[in-house]
Input
Amino acid sequence: MKDADFHARYGPWAVVAGGSDGLGAEFARQLAGRGLSLVLVARRTEPLTALASEIASRFAVETVPLSLDLADPRGLGALVEETERLDVGLLVCNGALSLIGPYLREAPSVHERLIDLNCRAPALLSLAFGARMQARGRGGIILVSSMAGFRGTALVSHYAASKAYVRVLAEGLWDELRPSGVDVLACCAGLTETPTFRSGSPRRPGWLALPVMGCESAVRQTLGALGRGPEIVPGRANRLASRLAALLPRRAGIALSGAGTRAMYPSVALGLRAPRKLPGRRRHEPFRDPGPD
Ligand SMILES: NC(=O)c1ccc[n+]([C@@H]2O[C@H](COP(=O)([O-])OP(=O)(O)OC[C@H]3O[C@@H](n4cnc5c(N)ncnc54)[C@H](OP(=O)(O)O)[C@@H]3O)[C@@H](O)[C@H]2O)c1
Output
């Protein structure tokens, strides 16, 4: 789709929820490149304002940085309220909390926070912005899921389940909102080179052969897929891996995914390291994704 057509269909404003670094920042840059003005949301003010200034200096668009916590119902309320006067045509729900480690070892409050950020936020933001888009007869919603959402995976059980939630939500909304001109897409990303992915220092044993995509390509493919179907797995190798994995008996697929995660995070698997994250801490928790299989 040409930039002008993209802007006409999904502009003039986009909200990127979780939009200060990694994939979210790349969504912001590429959307600005297509002429969309941006509301950028994240908790930390500094990276947020730095990105907003960078974009304002490179592109002729407006940027509104909003520092708030999407896992907090008050944060979601503030985002909806702050954007009321803007003509928002695109929502990208990107921010997520990933937990790696034994499910039973985390406190209930950590699991609750994962549900709030990974499930509650996309559900309620899709509701609020989807209704506005339906009323204006056009728009788009991108929910960032993961290849981890294709099946249960040991050591990332809750993260994978939350990504399955997002994927299935997007699929249903794709069918439901299409007649009113609103395109919904699940982005089922594989391993992607982001600061928080790097900060997790995953091992990548040779037998796993997992490709790690760049953000530019993952986001370009995702934006290109909007309006063409309910989901995209960015990257040819990732698509092939997900198709092959789908041919496996469910039980074998789950075992293979779990073996992959254990190999990537051996110290966690052996109980030598249990990265624990305090709910509500300001610094973004390291992102750890198990990858495609
Ligand atoms: N990287 C991968 O390998 C990979 C693979 C598959 C799927 N994904 C998915 O892709 C998405 C982005 O991943 P990423 O690696 O780019 O993550 P990231 O770099 O950590 O980006 C997360 C963004 O969300 C913001 N954020 C996090 N928690 C927030 C909260 N509670 N409230 C508001 N903003 C919040 C962060 O800023 P603050 O910390 O300042 O809040 C940051 O801007 C996630 O949904 C992830 O599950 C990533």
User: Anything to note?
Assistant: The CA atoms of residues 246 and 253 lie 8 Å apart. Residues 3-269 form a domain with the Rossmann fold fold (CATH 3.40.50.720). Confidence is low (pLDDT under 50) at residues 276-293.
